[in-house]
Amino acid sequence: MPSRFPGQGPRDLSKPLDRFEVLADERHDGLRLDQALALFLHWRSRTSIHRLIRGGFVELEGRRARKSSPIRMGDRIVVHVPPEAQPDDVYGDEFDIPILHEDRHLVVVDKPAGIAVHPAGRRIAGTLIHALHKRYRRPNDPAHDIVPKLLHRIDRETSGVLAIGLDERFHGAVRRQFEEREVKKVYQAVVHGRPDPGDGLIEFSIGPHRTSEVRLKVEARSDGSGLSARTHYRTLRSNGRFSLVELHPETGRTHQIRVHMEAIGCPLVGDKIYGVPDSVFLENLDGQLSDASRELLILDRHALHAQRLTFLHPFAEVEWSFEAPLPADMAALLDV
Q1: Cα Rg of the chain (Å, integer)
Q2: Which stretches of the chain drop beneath a pLDDT of 50?
Q3: Cβ atoms of residues 8 and 139 within 8 Å
Q4: Catalytic site residue 155?
Q5: Are the CB atoms for 313 and 319 separated by under 8 Å?
Q6: So what's the pLDDT on residue 261?
Q7: Whole-number pLDDT of residue 136
Q8: Could you give the CA distance from residue 85 to residue 52 in angstroms, rounded to a whole number?
Q9: Choice among 18, 89, 93, 155 that is catalytic
Q10: Which of 9, 103, 179, 250 could cross-link 230 (Cys pair, CB 3.0–4.6 Å)?
Q11: How far apart are CA 221 and CA 278, in angstroms?
């Protein structure tokens, strides 16, 4: 999302992105206006940025500017986003995401697969946090205005338990538990084959993949290099072709569960990075998955579910635990 101007409060994501202000810093010093805007409006093409400038929707230090106008550190840039250029929001007025718990301190939801939890890259609208802002924000009624804040994150394709703070003190106290690895997380995954042995501890370290074309791909290592990673697993049931596995990650490395299960020969069903050729991920990135790749994946998302989350309630000083049932698309794989 675009940077906020100093002194501005958190943006109300329940409203369209129709105007924002940014303060140029050292990254933008010396750039042309269109180059600086490309850093702020990273989801827009250079051509559409030029249209905004030509249309008079961009002000530099209070004046209409040209695309070649030089930017200096400390300059104030205001962008007025016309309705036709605003990002689409997939959510209407109804909040239809299953709520597992809700009180004045937090809300816990069962996030469906396919919904991003927060804006990132070119995905700047239609996320879970946008829907939560629609539910809780009341900027015109400060006494009842609540700014929901994520306590943790799960991937867009991962389903399951997600906790969001509704109170500043509560959010800060529980966030510290996440940072200090005091929160207990339990996942369920449907994997290819049957793990052997049926339960155990995976301790391969994890580092950037040394040969893959996919930049974000990591690999499990047994040579001591990379970051240490530990995942406990237990097979719950299997039909021979697929198995439902319960996973307790001790560490929180990037793609830890996915790369660890691939390392023991049981990659997640639907995983577009691990257990399949790099070409599958690259096809998906281009939005052009072939029929052969779809057949290989079986499921249109990786079969990973955040099943349980447990932490200490900072005010009541009791352990709270929240669970989300196994979603139908994963359960169906075990009935084959």
Answers
A1: 23
A2: 1-4, 90
A3: no
A4: yes
A5: yes
A6: 98
A7: 92
A8: 9
A9: 155
A10: 250
A11: 19
Two tokens at 170?
Answer: 């509560």
The answer to whether 148 and 105 are in contact (CB under 8 A) is no
| Among candidate residues 32, 61, 63, 62, the one with its CA nearest the CA of residue 49 | 32
Output the CA–CA distances (angstroms, integers) from residue 279 to 54, 147, 237, 259, in the order listed.
Answer: 40, 41, 31, 17
How far is residue 7's CA from residue 108's CA, in Å, rounded to a whole number? 30
Question: 182-336 architecture in CATH?
Answer: 2-Layer Sandwich (3.30)
Amino acid letter at 126? G
Find out if CATH 3.10.290.10 is the number for domain 19-85: yes
CB atoms within 10 A of CB 134: 18
Ranges of each domain in the chain: 19-85, 88-180, 182-336
Residue range 82-140, pLDDT digits in tens: 765 555 554 555 578 999 999 999 999 999 999 999 876 555 668 899 899 989 988 88
Q: What b/e string do you get for 144-160 counting C-beta neighbours within 10 Å, with b at 16 or more?
A: eebbbbbbbebbbbbbb
Give residue 292's pLDDT. 95
In this prediction, residue 177 carries a pLDDT of 96
Q: Of all helices (H) and strands (E), which one includes residue 48?
A: helix 46-54
Burial of 143 (C-beta count, 10 Å sphere; 0-12/13-18/19+): exposed
- Tell me yes or no: is domain 88-180 CATH 3.30.420.40: no
